[in-house]
């Protein structure tokens, strides 16, 4: 029986600033959900950023939605599946819902002695890892950073781009690392459909994909862009649910999807999107939101499903943090092992989390 839900607020620094077209992140403002039962507990990580710059959600807003609307929906016997059904009445707020769903899943799967990977239908025991490279001050910096990640063993490089820091950056990396390196770009919605001819200049670099070139709401713009650019278009921000994914594929807005559990409201919804894409032969890959080990563990379980045929942004802990909150995830020959014990397979290390924690709020479950 679930006795209480805790919201744990904490802080962690990134090993280096991460610049995208929308912000420069130097740290993570963390929110964990802890489901505490009689003899088991479950953990989930909220992926929302401190400010609503990637999507409309932000971490303090997620906490407010959790405490006012989502936690009151939970009773002592609520399952993750029931929570997803009930919380559908609350519109949007995917990242807030996903963190609670993840904690409930971890809790119930631990009680059932099953791993999240098995529960979701994983077919791999390790997943190939890519790395997302932030916008660097200069091309020399970029080449140095990419060389370091290649030396670490990352099998795919993703370059963040924005208008003015795009074609030349990609050309420099392609020239330096050769035609065989798996390479893709992510614009985080920084362009408009009028930039189609400009983005088509990326076609000569044989990229795996261009991720989210246009704004979240401009799904129809991506249809037009897909016709004018040869490189496959992949959607990230725009795909907020199974229904949106189905519609985007129906109208040919994209040919690849980045699945981020936080962005679509959870692992169960992610699985549905995966199954849809697998049935249609559409490749998917697992995105990231600079998660610590709690969110990373669950993402690795998802990324082990058979439709995840492209390397994800599931990088090793040390790419982000000097000391992760869990046992660190490590890259071995370009792969990261999928946790295969029970639930998400990891727990925060008490002393590490304790030192990072600013506040814990506890909500008793009495119904
Ligand atoms: O667009 O994929 C993105 C990080 C934060 C917010 C959005 C994105 C990203 C990344 C890094 O690209 C993914 C990761 O390594 O976790
Ligand atoms: Mg992205």
Keywords:
367 residues, alpha/beta, Enolase-like, domain 1, TIM Barrel, 2 domains, seven-stranded parallel β-sheet, four-stranded antiparallel β-sheet, 13 strands, 35% helix, 21% strand, globular, binds 2-succinylbenzoate, binds magnesium ion
SSE topology:
Elements: E1 2-19, E2 24-37, E3 41-46, H1 59-70, H2 80-87, H3 94-111, H4 116-120, E4 126-128, E5 130-133, H5 139-152, E6 156-160, H6 167-177, E7 182-186, H7 196-199, E8 210-211, H8 219-228, E9 233-235, H9 242-250, E10 256-259, H10 261-264, H11 267-280, E11 284-286, H12 293-303, E12 335-337, H13 350-356, E13 357-364
The protein binds 2-succinylbenzoate and magnesium ion.
**What fraction strand?**
15-25%
The CATH architecture name of the largest domain reads Alpha-Beta Barrel
Q: What count of helical segments does DSSP give?
A: 13
CATH hierarchy class name of the largest domain? Alpha Beta
Give average pLDDT, whole number. 98
CATH fold field value of the largest domain: TIM Barrel
- What spatial form do the alpha-carbon principal axes imply? globular
Rg, rounded, reads 20 Å
Stretches with pLDDT under 50, minimum 5 residues: none
């Amino acid at each position: 029986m679930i006795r209480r839900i805790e919201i744990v607020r904490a802080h962690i620094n990134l090993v280096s600033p991460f610049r995208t077209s929308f912000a420069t992140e130097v740290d993570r403002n963390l929110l964990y959900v802890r489901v505490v039962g009689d003899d088991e507990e479950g953990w989930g990580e909220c992926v929302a950023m401190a400010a609503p710059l990637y999507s409309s959600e932000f971490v303090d807003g997620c906490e407010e939605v959790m405490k006012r609307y989502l936690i009151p929906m939970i009773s002592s016997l609520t399952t993750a599946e029931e929570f997803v059904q009930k919380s559908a009445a609350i519109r949007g707020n995917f990242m807030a819902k996903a963190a609670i769903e993840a904690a409930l899943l971890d809790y119930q799967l631990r009680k059932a002695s099953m791993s999240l990977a098995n529960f979701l239908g994983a077919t791999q025991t390790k997943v190939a890892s890519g790395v997302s490279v932030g916008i660097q001050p200069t091309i020399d910096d970029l080449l140095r950073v990419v060389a370091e990640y290649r030396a670490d063993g990352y099998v795919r490089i993703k370059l963040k781009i924005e208008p003015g820091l795009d074609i030349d950056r990609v050309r420099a990396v392609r020239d330096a690392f050769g035609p065989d390196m798996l390479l893709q770009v992510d614009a985080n919605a920084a362009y408009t459909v009028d930039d189609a001819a400009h983005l088509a200049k990326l076609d000569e670099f044989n990229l795996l994909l261009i991720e989210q070139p246009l704004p979240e709401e401009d799904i129809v713009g991506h249809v037009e862009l897909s016709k004018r650019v040869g490189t496959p278009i992949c959607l990230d921000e725009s795909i907020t649910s199974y229904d949106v994914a189905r519609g985007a594929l129906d109208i040919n807005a994209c040919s690849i999807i980045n699945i981020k559990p936080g962005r679509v409201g959870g692992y169960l919804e992610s699985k549905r999107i995966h199954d849809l894409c697998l049935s249609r032969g559409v490749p998917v890959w697992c995105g990231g939101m600079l998660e610590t080990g709690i969110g990373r563990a669950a993402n690795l379980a998802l990324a082990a499903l058979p439709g995840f045929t492209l390397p994800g942004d599931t990088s090793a802990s040390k790419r982000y943090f000097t000391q992760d909150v869990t046992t660190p995830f490590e890259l071995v020959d370009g792969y990261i092992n999928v946790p295969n014990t029970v639930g998400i397979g990891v727990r925060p290390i008490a002393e590490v989390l304790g030192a990072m924690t600013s506040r814990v709020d506890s909500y008793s479950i009495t119904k």
